[in-house]
């Protein structure tokens, strides 16, 4: 799909239906692109606030209708003029447009960052200008571990740059977590337009918050368009990789995945190694007494058993975080009974669009109205990303008994609480589902009322207080009550602080990355690690923007930086580069120091993001705009260079 909108000649009826279905704030901006007339913004009503998870902004219904009526006239005129190339604002004009759509919230230092994502400028479209030659890049083979969204992106950008690569994926297909997590109800909690590669927009999303099958289809379509499958080895696991300092090579050991683990081991040699396994690749099953005694079918949501028959069965779902929150409403009514075992209640953000389908008219607008899709993306992400910085920062003067961390954070707590009360007046249930920690302290769940409505069904029970034991035929709660179960589902999250899992990465002098990291993983900008030359992480330590950002957007920042690192090595004539130890330590120190000022570190927040020392090694500490700027291009002063530049093309050695 073209970024600026496809020409159209549809009739007035189609235009009217599309306008009526579209996001009003995005329509306002698209009108400027169709006319080149910024005075429209002075003539028409505008949002006085962009609201998180609301594509329409804070406007009265009459004001929205006024905008829609004018937009219909503008779109019809644009059509009748033959859909000429859309107007592209200069920096001052864009500043005016941003002031209108964000109600003045966009500060001057964010304009370049937003302009790049809108594609008003080309800063993010083609990546960094490369100083190395194509011949040099052709002699820098790369192995990518993982073929999820980050691995696919790595392949696309490496291919465009002329860097040879092989992606190694242990599953039988692409998609990573979106292939593994296929439980009923699985969907993204970031708006679909933002959970999209910026260079691969689409108007094919069926839901405002795409379901797992939609996302998997999208990833596979993108992969096919860019010809990445032919560079990918599926059903293959990486055992480990060793850095050969003399040859400036990574020796990567792989073997067929699954089976008894005794398949033939092969070695891939590469100049660069990209670890794109992410933070959600190692599911956790808690050490509960009797965990292996259950005699019925049992699985983790991240390893869903497609043969499970739930109809007429009693199902125990252990965990009420993101996956349990999605799973339970999807199976209630099919199963005879569902018991939900909740250790800690989760905050729920009001989101009327969460299960809502995208209308045909809205898809038409995304496809045809100039820049509409780009502004829709902005409306989707701006209110939940950098705009919330104040609400997640701890005010040291604020005292609310651990229930909130600032006045703004308390306002969010009040809003979330009011939303829950809109769906039930059962005080016992409200006491069970209302967290006793500040909002935003964990990943906030998206809710349109489905969760509380489901918990009030006669065939669903919410069990709190912990689990005493698993038995052959059910679960015994800490309350001493034994509840029978035919099927047991673990919805208990991931080991995010040991993201490599069993993969054994060894750098200079044979140092093991798992041992170096322990449960306090670190990387410079979340990408590179001292003493591990030409090794790069995607969705690595310190990059999980737990509230609001799209992993795909962050991956694009990381891959742009990785390409810059490869180019830096080649242009320098060196064989390898790794960040200086002092640079790496300083970045980690500053990151952890800032995180301690944020709601995630609050003592009343218990989450799997915290390690044994109470640190938050996986979380991102700054604004996404900052990350965008820092990852534009690596600074050679941050790196130690070693070795000669000669090296083989990608090879496989038995």
UniProtKB/TrEMBL annotation:
InterPro entries referenced in this protein's UniProt entry, alphabetically: FAD-bind_Monooxygenase_sf, FAD/NAD-bd_sf
GO molecular function annotation: monooxygenase activity
Segments traversing the membrane: none
Pfam families named among the record's database cross-references: Pyr_redox_3
First and last residue of the signal peptide: none
Record keywords: Monooxygenase, Oxidoreductase
PANTHER family documented for this protein: FAD_NAD(P)-BINDING DOMAIN-CONTAINING PROTEIN-RELATED, L-ORNITHINE N(5)-MONOOXYGENASE-RELATED
Name assigned to this protein: 4-hydroxyacetophenone monooxygenase [Phenylobacterium zucineum HLK1]
Organism: Mycolicibacterium parafortuitum (Mycobacterium parafortuitum)
Lineage of origin: Bacteria, Bacillati, Actinomycetota, Actinomycetes, Mycobacteriales
